[in-house]
Design a protein that fits this description.
heterodimer; A: alpha+beta; 2 domains; 7 strands; globular; B: alpha+beta; Nucleotidyltransferase, domain 5; Rossmann fold; 18 helices; Acetone carboxylase subunit gamma (chain A); Aceto_COase_bsu/gsu (chain A); ACX-like_C (chain B); Acetone carboxylase subunit beta (chain B); 5-oxoprolinase (ATP-hydrolyzing) activity (chain B)
Amino acid sequence: MSVSHDINTLRELKDGKLSFEKLHGLISGFKDADRFDKMVQIWQESVEWDDPILLPLAEHLFVVRKPDGRRVVKSTWGYEYCEAQENWKLHAKVFVRDTEELINEIYPDKLGCDPEWMQLREYYDPLSGTLLEVEVVPPGYPIVHDFKPDIDTFYRDWLGRPVP
Amino acid sequence: MNQFIMSMDAGGTMTDTFFVDDTGRFVVGKAQTTPADESIGFGRSVEDALAQWGQAPEAVFPKVATGIYSGTSMLNRLLERKGRRLGVIVTAGMEDYFQLERGIQTYLGYSYQDRLKVSTHRHNQPLVPRERMKGVRGRIDLFGTEAIPLYEHEAEAAVAELLDMDVEGIVVNLLFSYVNGAHENAVKEAALKVMERKGKSVPIYLSSELYPVMQDFARLNTVTIEAYAAEPSRGQFQKIADRARNFGGQFELRVMASHGGTISTEARELARTLISGPIGGMVGARYLGAELGIGNIVCSDIGGTSFDLGLITGGEFTTKTQPDMARFVLKLPLVDIDSVGAGTGSYVRLDPISKRIEFGPDSAGSRIGMCFEQGGVDTPTLSDCNIILGNLNPNNFLGGEVILNRERSYQAIKERIADPLGLDPYDAAEGVLQLFENHLRNEVYARVFGKGYSPEDYTLFSYGGGGPMHVAGYTKGLNFADVLVPAWAAGFSAFGCACADFEYRLDRTVNVATASPDLAPAAFEQGFDLLSGAVNAGWEGLRAKVKEEFAKSGVDAGQIEYRHCLRLQYVGQLNDVEIELPFQAVRRADDIREIIERFEVAYSKEFSRSAKSPELGYLVTNVLVRGVVKVMKPALPNFPLHGPEPLRDALKEIRPIYRNGKWHDARIFHMDDLLPGNVITGPAVIEAASTTFMVPPGAEARLDQHLIFHLRHLED
């Protein structure tokens, strides 16, 4: 017997509309085996483009399959960053807070970091201007590649089917 | 002349009333609870009960000597955050009490697994929003000395602002006010001044008056709940009392309180009536034990949602002083009772990964299980297992009021449990019940053995709607001195409420230490005045308060029986132990030796003899006074004994039940038709309207002259 949640419940989960009692039940209950497929379906409904989602990658970012078979990182608003194996951050708009003045825009005086030691890198979606990710690293540190999914193995070994 | 005792329990869905006369004859009435005006449901429930005697309320009420209320309306008001609009004044800097809480309040009541999952933790919605929390500067230190004077102008400003926000009451809770209430009193003075100036008046609740005990946060919770949820109950009580008076009742309605006694509806500390449900059973068991000469009792109560366990040792139960309720830590005395497991309505599920059977933690409650089609439940429950095995009669639930569908139970068990495990549905259902009963048995054993006692010295009482069904399972192999199932098991909590004395129990934190007279005689001598002074003043003050409370009910001071208690711990340890003293004032050094001796006896019983640590010295944390007024109690039924063989008519039918992997022909009896003295040998099922008593193969049950069954395992 496997647990399965109603798709509307999962839709509310995605939109943050579940009451705490229901959310608590979801967190504490048994894992539903079909969660991935249902969530992909929900995400697919929520975007305006048609490329099928292979994997939600990060907030507002998905790996999609293009008609020619390429796997591409694409945002909710339709911006296509790069191939799935590449780091999408290299193709996003970047804003670096590396002076005291810029850091103080976010943190009150003395509560922020020393720009000699640490900087904030903000990555924005070029189409919508939405902040997607913030990196806090020492100056000169390579751009972090957060997540490099092995999509083929995930589909084959975890979902038990080939990548569509 | 015939006299009656009435007790009522206004639960979330049903209001039960219980009437017993002085021969022990009783009836139980039921009606839907009417939350807006509980007296309506009460009236209907009374009519339902007395109709069984063919009597009108007007005929019985003039002869009711005692009326006890218990109910959940106060708790619901708290859970639904529908209490009064309050303002709170605290020591400046502490205004975020309700936002920060104590960490433990973010996961109270959770399962162990959930406690470990931080993502499930959640802050409570504050009873009083941040903008109505006002800070006032000033400080009393832990010795009760004024370290910073109170800024009275800030107090006045705070009260003025709160009044402008239209508060209906003001709670004052300052640091260390339990040692010295001067600053709280000053806030009250200031408030009265402002109210007069503004021409507005709202009640003021001082923590130093209501709950002068340590731990400012738990104290604030308690005082706030008193003002927030308890105070509005007085109106409900009045309506119920009025309805009783209309029926011709002359008695004063009293309320069951968490310390195991009843108090007046006019009592100052009404918040302790918040928790009364499971306590009734313990009080009833203590009374029944005293009547039957049984001092050591394990109380076990199975309802639809939980299994509650409590111990009575030497005729007394123990009391917790920091219980939690509705996700609040409180400072109230609560009869020590633990909810340790699932109830008959608990859902049964299979972990999809490990294929392990799990119970609850949620339950179908009044919707019973899959067998109750109208209930809309979609997961099988323990009741479904009982139905398909023949243990429960689908046509006798609540005396046949609800007809259950056995086929639905069978399908659910088969599809959800049996098939995935590759088992026969009957074997699967029996396995589930065995697992459940094993779990309960382990809990029972752990409670008794964990306290250093042994089951052979205890008698187990089983009650609640589901207790008698499983009692044979969870007592087998434990060798209790006796296992008792009262014929009125389902109404035992209500019966228990009727057994409670009229009792106030008040406490106050003192925190004075003394050295050991043997190890440090000089320090012991030196500390005598301080300790005796604090204890005597504490007891005297509390006695006066108790007297005041009883005076509200017109009780004469001469009728009050005082009992003087202390809570002590070794200096530096964390858990205190309660002891009762045979004197009402400390006069001589020998009195303190007596205190120490009693403490050490109690301490070694609860922990161990080798853990005694007299070198640390002793700390008296709290002084307590219990004022008890004896009231009329229900008489135990007493009938002449008949032979062991039940009447031919008592046997209703022969029904197959599944047990130990095979079907047995079980004799089905109707409980009402059994006579005292009858002995029923298993396999048999004894059915009553509100409970079912299972006597499995290898066991026998004897009904005694008091209508109490004694269950015996023949194979043990």
